[in-house]
Every structure is written in structure tokens, then in C-alpha cells.
Amino acid sequence: MGIKLTKMQGCGNDFVILDYEEFIKGGWNDMKDAAINLCDRHFGIGADGLIIPNLNTEDTDIGWFFYNSDGSTAQMCGNGMRCFARYVYDRKFVDKKQFSVKTLAGIIMPEILDNGNIRVNMSKPILESNRIPFIPQNNLNYKISVMNRIFEGNAVSMGNPHFVIFIKDDEDLLSLAKIYGPEIEISAEFPEKTNVEFVKINNSSKIELCVWERGCGITLACGTGACASVTAGILNGILDNIVEVKLPGGVVNVEWQGFGNDIFLTGPAEYVFEAKI
């Protein structure tokens, strides 16, 4: 008996998407078990996360179940949301181009644009320390010590916690993420662990970043990380309100008009393949 699935990616951040009835066919103990098995890049399909549409929501058009490759849940994933939006629209699970999705981060509003990109209303960035959650009260320009080095970063939540670090032009993004990302992820300041962004400013409207994702490690892209980085840059007065974000796997655009406003993430979502296992 084959289990039907779809592989999708947004800027290289890749996901297995599985309908609920196909999950039931699989005989896994739970969705966590399914995520660990399917996302394994050697013995499974290989992906950064597993997405299962939830068609039984009362207060939104649709919902999702989202799991990282290690089986942990994530409140929100920007690249995953874009892939999810294209998938459920193409499958006619929703019948309109802009719709509401129930997530652990609250209600998210994606929109299918005429040019094929997906624009996602990612809601408002969360800056209150107790809601990030981040134990110190000063969440901006906080100095954290790891492996005999001190980094100054900014704790922001996009429904999931992030620590955004702006680096010097002559430093290597990937090396820093690989070396220091795992240690910062589990720092005591973050009771639920954290995603870690290392960001290089090209100019006030263009940045580059590399992300160490909580529960995944290095990924080619992170939509919530892009939003958190732009939020931190605007709050520090070094970025404009519309920013092009270059990630290892591609480019997204982030728009935020500051306190009290929702933040928007726009970028591609592409099919890789459909298969049976």
C-alpha cells in the first residue's frame, strides 16, 4: 500500500506535505514519529519539516500541523506557510486566494499573488520578553556569552523565538552559524530554546543572513528568521521598512511599518515532486 506525499520547497527550505488520511495509512505512532521518519535524509524522503493540513477548524478557513525534522513542533514557519498555502489552494482545500490558517502562533493570513509568489501576513512581531520567551527584560541589544565570545543580539518572536545578531562585513555567516548557533539555541536565557540569525547589512534595504534553526540546524532559508531580522534592524534604526533578504537558498522580501503593524513576508513556493512510499 503506497502512501502519497508531496515534497515542496521555499528558497531551499524543504517540506514533506502529507494529507491526514495518508498519515493514518502510514501506521506511525503519532505525527512526531512520522516527521522523524519522513524527514530523514538518508532513510526517508528528506526535509526540514512535515506539514499536515487540518481541515477541521472552526474559526479559520483551514489549519495545519507542523513538525520539525527532529519531531518537535514549531509555532510558525514562514517558508512552510508559503508552501502550505500553494498546496491547499491547488488541492482546492480552500477556494480563495487569501485565507486564514490556524497555527500555534495564532491566525496567519497567506495570499496567492498573480505572479506566483505567496505573500504572508505574519501578524505582529512579539517584543515582550515574557512572551518571546526570553528571561532578561532587555530583549534588544542584549549581550550573550558563548564559547568565550560575547555576541550582542536582539530577542524577537514571530510566534517562535529568535535571537538576531548583526555581524561585521569581514565575518563569515555560515561559519558563525555552525559554530555558535547550537550553543546559543540552548542558552539559559531562552527557556524554550531559540532560532539564531547571523545577519550582514549590505545597505538599508538589503541584508544577508544565515540561520541556525531550533530543531533543524542550518537550513537554506527561514521565513520567520527573515522577519525577525528585519524587525530587529528597523528597531535599531539601521533598516528601511521594506527589505530584500538574501538567504542561502534564495531571496524573500519583508515589509514592516513598525510598532503596532503586521509584518509581511513575500517569496516563492515550489513543488519538488509527488511520490508514493
Summarize the structure.
The chain is α+β, with helices and mostly antiparallel strands.
Mind explaining what this structure looks like?
This protein has helices spanning 20-26, 31-39, 78-90, 173-185, 223-235, and strands at 4-10, 13-17, 49-54, 62-68, 101-103, 106-112, 118-121, 142-146, 149-157, 161-166, 195-203, 206-213, 217-219, 242-247, 250-256, 263-267, 270-276. The chain has 2 domains: 4-123 and 269-276, Roll (Diaminopimelate Epimerase, Chain A, domain 1); 129-261, Diaminopimelate Epimerase, Chain A, domain 1 (Roll). Helix content is 20%, strand content 38%. The radius of gyration is 18 Å and the shape is globular. The N and C termini lie close together (8 Å). By secondary structure, the chain is an alpha+beta fold.
Keywords:
single chain; 277 residues; alpha+beta; Diaminopimelate Epimerase, Chain A, domain 1; 2 domains; 5 helices; 17 strands; 20% helix
Instruction: Please identify the structural class as seen in this structure.
Output: alpha+beta
> Gyration radius, to the nearest Å?
18 Å
Largest sheet: 17 strands, mixed
Range of strand content? 35-45%
Count of discrete alpha- or pi-helical segments spanning 4 or more residues = 5
Count of structural domains:
2
User: What is the share of helical residues?
Assistant: 10-25%
The ordered string of helix (H) and strand (E) elements is EEHHEEHEEEEEEHEEEHEEEE
End-to-end Cα distance: 8 Å
Say which CATH homologous superfamily of the largest domain is assigned.
Diaminopimelate Epimerase, Chain A, domain 1
Overall CATH architecture of the largest domain = Roll
Q: What number is the mean pLDDT?
A: 96
